[in-house]
Amino acid sequence: MLNENDFNDTLAPIKLSDEIIEILRESYFDNRKDIRNTLQEFYPHLDHYQNLEWRLDTQIANRSLGSSINPIYLLKLITKCGSDKPIEHLLQTDPNNLKHLCNELESALNEIRTYENRLIMRNIK
């Protein structure tokens, strides 16, 4: 559902001739409802985050190792797909893997905040 300016911004990097852009523009605006309906049919219906519960478990000591500490995070991730009932995912990880996961998610968030990705996201909506 692009407006005229967004459509022009989308095609600007491709550097097509004015004649081809005009043909594409007419075709798009004549058929954009059909294009939108077709794209929605192929859109993947993914689970969405609903809740996260976590607990830190650690073994303080045992007879053979003495004072070794092994922390483990237990996570219950609750997701939901549409109006279906929530699905619980039980996960277990150590602090190093959890830190790496957090770093990767922060990196993905920083990537999506770039100008190019914001332009793409604006055109997708």
Automatic annotation (TrEMBL):
InterPro entries named in the record: COMM, Commd2
Domain COMM: 48-116
PROSITE patterns hit by this protein: COMM
Top-level taxon in the UniProt lineage: Eukaryota
Function per UniProt: Scaffold protein in the commander complex that is essential for endosomal recycling of transmembrane cargos; the commander complex is composed of the CCC subcomplex and the retriever subcomplex.
Database matches in PANTHER family: COMM DOMAIN CONTAINING PROTEIN 2 (PTHR15857), COMM DOMAIN-CONTAINING PROTEIN 2 (PTHR15857:SF0)
Descriptive protein name: COMM domain-containing protein
Organism of this sequence: Dictyostelium firmibasis
